[in-house]
Design a protein that fits this description.
Strand 16 and strand 17 form a beta hairpin. The radius of gyration is 26 Å and the shape is globular. A nine-stranded mixed β-sheet has the order 2-1-3-4-9-8-7-5-6, with helices on both faces. Strands 12-11-10-13-14 form a five-stranded parallel β-sheet, with helices on both faces. By secondary structure, the chain is of the alpha/beta class. Helix 15 runs antiparallel to helix 16. The two termini are about 45 Å apart. The longest helix is centred in the middle third of the chain and has 20 residues. It folds into three domains: about 190 residues, Rossmann fold; about 190 residues, 3-Layer(aba) Sandwich (Rossmann fold); about 100 residues, 2-Layer Sandwich (GMP Synthetase, Chain A, domain 3). It is built from 16 helices and 18 strands. The protein binds xanthosine-5'-monophosphate. Xanthosine-5'-monophosphate (XMP) binds next to loops.
Length: about 525
């Protein structure tokens, strides 16, 4: 088994970032809630443990504690923020509410050397250096447990970094996992590589080999079907599974007629012609567009598309005899069991259900070869498998497709106009080298007509809006600040080249309060 690190989650908003930083350094890790069954924690087989931050206060009764196994196991431990506080409280130190709460950037001075700074770390983490870090704490340690000493301090946190080299326990009051801690990734690496001794052998090449074997073990001689959407996750899953089991895999591509320009053909060319993967291409666009006739409510659109998709997919799949498995491109963020301290039901803004419900309906077992990976890692795996960059680096695209980019009723004509405008916009973005800086960019066809003048004639055509946002996870987003000349160029091209549009606007709403899609 490759060396692995266990991250115990105490509910911090940024626990996932710890995992990403650790994996970026070539070490496999997983996140489990702090109160996971101790047997499971033990069986995970970690070489070292990281305790995450969290919103609780160790000073209150019944707040989360690290399981006894953590300190009985003899494994190295790094406590971050709340993780440091609970480690101190549990090992005989004292924590107190601080008058001087520190949130945001702070300077830490490395006051002494310790084994954490001994390995392959830059001058940043050597005694005497000062380093910018990101603090977020209300409580602070005031008395260290036996065996610990202070090795780094800041104005508000005299115990900013603590160390017990004997037991290989370390703690930081700040968050090394966030980008605002300039050399934080290096500190995490110093722990995982230097202190714990992980080899850094977790690469996408290694993952590919392991995953291929795991798929073979799981599936045996059975048949598998995989739905393709034209997106990164399902494409990577399909190519990986095909590498493992060859023609036992059949891909099903339900073309709902709501994809971007040229995308349906690309899927067929790539999978059937390039990879030679058995592919059923069901052109169901008539059916979807028919079902959407007269529908203008966004949620009804989603439900109509989601429901029909399942029917069509199921219909096609049931024609292949002897299928036992359904492949899905589920990712790690979908399956992480994290701790949530925020109770109560949340409001549904958009239902986002596309093919949810397929597995129950089809009574098939699931193959989910990407369920341990973050999105960036799926892209790397796609590159490793030789998928074209145009697909691997593609912006996310919603399941209901262009249907939610045409507010109001959808018609075949409107879809055609939107596809053409969107293609011009993306072409200009690519030509300007901006595509990879943007999380998502697309055109929206507005349900209003406006008056214009072209040549000497009056026009009365659609307006379209352009959207481009930056984001890390789609949960929040900022509009992309295109230069004006770029926007002017796109507007001119769209109006000249796309029949049916005579006005172009740029959407400068952030999320919140807006959402990324218009519906
Ligand atoms: P919003 O519009 O909610 O979008 O800010 C956040 C992200 O989710 C995508 N999105 C969807 N994806 N089915 C999907 O698969 C949907 O119904 C759906 N609605 C929005 C959106 O493109 C963005 O990446």
């Amino acid at each position: 088994m490759t060396d692995r690190i266990l991250i115990l989650d105490f509910g911090s908003q940024v626990t996932q970032l710890i995992a990403r930083r650790v994996r970026e350094s070539g070490v496999y890790c997983e996140i489990l809630p702090f109160n996971t069954d101790p047997e499971r924690i033990k069986n995970f087989g970690a070489k070292g443990i990281i305790l995450s931050g969290g919103p609780a206060s160790v000073l209150e009764i019944d707040t989360p504690r690290a399981p006894d196994y953590v300190f009985d196991s003899g494994l190295p431990v790094l406590g971050i923020c709340y993780g440091q506080q609970t480690m101190c409280a549990q090992l005989g130190g004292r924590v107190e509410r601080s008058d001087h709460r520190e949130f945001g950037r702070a300077q830490v001075e490395i006051s002494e050397s310790c084994a954490l700074f001994d390995g392959d770390v830059s001058e940043t983490w050597k005694a005497g250096a000062r380093e910018q870090v990101w603090m977020s704490h209300g409580d602070r340690v005031i008395e260290l447990p036996p065996g610990f000493r202070v090795v780094g301090k800041s104005g508000g946190a005299p115990f900013a970094i603590i160390a017990d080299d004997e037991r290989r326990y370390y703690g930081t009051m700040f968050h090394p996992e966030v980008v605002h801690t300039s050399s934080g990734a290096e500190l995490l690496k110093a722990f995982t590589h230097g202190v714990v001794g992980c080899g850094g052998s977790w690469t996408m090449a290694a993952f590919r080999a392991q995953a291929v074997q795991a798929i073979r073990d799981q599936v045996g001689g059975a048949k598998v079907i995989c739905g393709l959407s034209g997106g990164v996750d399902s494409s990577v899953a399909a190519v990986l599974i095909h590498e493992a089991i060859g023609d036992q895999l059949t891909c099903v591509f339900v073309d709902h007629g709501l994809l971007r320009k040229g995308e349906a053909d690309e899927v067929v060319d790539l999978f059937r012609d390039h990879y030679n993967i058995p592919l059923i291409h069901k052109d169901a666009s008539e059916m979807f567009i028919g079902a959407l006739e007269g529908v203008s409510d966004p949620e009804v659109k989603r439900k109509t598309i989601g429901g029909l998709f399942i029917d069509v997919f199921d219909g096609e799949a049931s024609r292949i005899k002897g299928v036992e498995f359904l492949a899905q491109g589920t990712l790690y963020p979908d399956v992480i069991e994290s701790v949530s301290f925020i109770g109560g039901p949340s409001v549904t803004i958009k239902s986002h259900h596309n093919v949810g419900g397929l597995p129950e309906r089809m009574k098939l077992k699931l193959v989910e070869p990407l369920r341990e990976l973050f999105k960036d890692e799926v892209r790397d795996l796609g590159r490793e498998l030789g998928l074209p960059e145009s697909l691997v680096g593609r912006h996310p695209f919603p399941g209901p497709g262009l249907a939610i980019r045409i507010p109001g009723e959808i018609t075949r004509d409107k879809l055609e106009i939107l596809r053409n405008a969107d293609a011009v916009y993306l072409d200009e973005i690519r030509k300007s080298g901006l595509y990879d800086e943007i999380w998502q960019a697309f055109a929206v066809l507005l349900p209003v007509r406006t008056v214009g003048v072209m040549g000497d004639a009056r026009t009365y055509d659609h307006a379209c809006a352009l959207r481009a946002v930056t984001s890390t996870d789609g949960m929040t987003a900022d509009y992309y600040p295109f230069p004006h000349d770029f926007l002017g160029r796109v507007a001119t091209r769209i109006i000249n080249e796309v029949r049916g549009i005579n006005r172009v606007t740029y959407d400068i709403t952030s999320k919140p309060p807006g959402t990324i899609e218009w519906e």
